[in-house]
From TrEMBL:
Organism: Paraflavitalea soli
UniProt keyword Signal, yes or no: yes
Protein name: Thioredoxin family protein
The keyword Signal belongs to this UniProt entry's keyword annotation: yes
Top-level division of the source organism's lineage: Bacteria
Domain Thioredoxin span(s) in chain numbering: 13-162
One Pfam family named in its UniProt record: Thioredoxin_7
Amino acid sequence: MKHTLALFFAAFLLAATSFAQSSQPSAEAVLKEATTQAAKEHKKVFIIFHASWCGWCHRMDSIMANADCKKLFADNFVIRHLTVQEAKGKEHLENPGGAAMMEKYQGKGKGIPFWLIFDAKGNLVADCLMRPEGAGLDKPGENTGCPATKEEVAHFVKVLKQTTPLNTNQLALIEKNFIKK
């Protein structure tokens, strides 16, 4: 009986571990689901690469979800998170293909949060990289992450102005919330 119980317990742990390792949707699946929803709702897709340990990631989420900003973002974006760069022992939280997607869009070595904006067809229309004026999305740039400095927030507001119908007052409200005090 003890032997049977031990085997059952071992099998259960193995199954639970296997499930935990594959329970996160792939980055491709997340993007596909988000673009489908964005097409139905006439919105853009805002993908945020993050990790559970990342304080700046939590700050960005908190600001985007606060009373001043939540509706502004929700009305214009389908927001999704892809977990990458998790701490040892928490790798099971990562979305398969998340790191590869981040690298595809010049995020390798740029840190997190790292964010991308897609249209409803899955085309990249903007990202978190600050580049020289006139440089295209294919050129390298510096990650603004969770924008906090005047320069980073100015880039973020510029991106929002280009990708949404937000008006000057709404953009100013977002700017006010993101500037680190």
